[in-house]
Amino acid sequence: MMIRVERKEEPADFNEAVRVPGNDFVSKNPKGKEPPKFWNRCREDLYEAYEGYCAYTTFKINCRLDAVVDHFLPQSRHPELRYEWSNYRLASSHINSVKKDAEPIFDPFELPEEAFRLAEDMRIEVNPEAFSDEKDLALASETLRRLGLNRPELIADRTEMQDEALRLIGEGMSDEIALIVSESLLKQSRFLHREAVRKGYVKPL
Questions:
Q1: What HEC string does 13-47 produce?
Q2: Which stretches of 41-92 are DSSP H helices?
Q3: Which of 60, 75, 125, 193 has the highest CB neighbour number within 10 Å of its CB?
Q4: Is 102 exposed, middle or buried (0-12, 13-18, 19+ CB in 10 A)?
């Protein structure tokens, strides 16, 4: 949830594979039975559509088995969106378990540009300049808290990625190699790459 994510269209076979059988089950079993996880049928499509990046941390999910279909609006309170592509966000299994039924939080699809910045201590901070509405500013802060995006392990991951890039850049590499380092950081985290470019650490692509 650190940079805006561009919404992707649902796959051509989504209606047949997920929505129709899901809603059919719901209509025949209005109460009591656990809803089938038909959304997992589109997990690979979701992974490909969003190039493997977690919508909330912006880290690349390198192991596909660690990628899950997250219901942005919790299905427990929004059952009508249980089988809707528009409510799915790609997430790592860990962030999905932290998020649970958290609501409200900022939708990655609707996040203002540069809503968050990376502080020198590698914590994520809200950028007040990105918000004209006090309620949205407060929601951004609440989103950071609810998703635990400044947990020690995430700070450590960001620190390790950035330090490695800075170490390589500090070795006086050629422009060609500097671009490779920039590409490598982008493949690890879109947010870290954007912030490294903003701070002048790496070259823009």
A1: CHHHHHHHHHHHHHHHCCCCCCCCCHHHHHHHHHH
A2: 43-49
A3: 193
A4: middle
pLDDT tens digits, 147-185: 999 999 999 999 999 999 888 887 667 788 888 999 999
Domain boundary among 130, 150, 170: 150
pLDDT classification of 53: cutoffs 50, 70, 90: very high
In single-letter form, the type of residue at position 62 comes to N
Domain co-membership, 79 together with 20 = yes
159 and 72, same structural domain? Answer: no
| Other CB atoms within 10 A of residue 161 CB | 19
Cα angle 106, 112, 118 (rounded to 5 degrees) comes to: 85
Which tokens belong to 10? 């649902």
Q: In whole numbers, what is the pLDDT of the chain averaged over residues?
A: 94
State how many domains the chain has. 2
Between β-strands 116-118 and 124-126, what pairing exists: parallel, antiparallel or unpaired? antiparallel
Do the beta carbons of residue 139 and residue 172 sit within 8 Å?
Answer: no
> Tokens in use for 182?
């920039």
Residue with tokens 């850049």: 169
Cα 201 → chain centroid: 23
Q: What is the DSSP letter of 107?
A: -
* Of the candidates 136, 146, 144, the residue with the CA atom closest to the CA atom of residue 110: 136
Q: Are 161 and 58 in contact (CB under 8 A)?
A: no
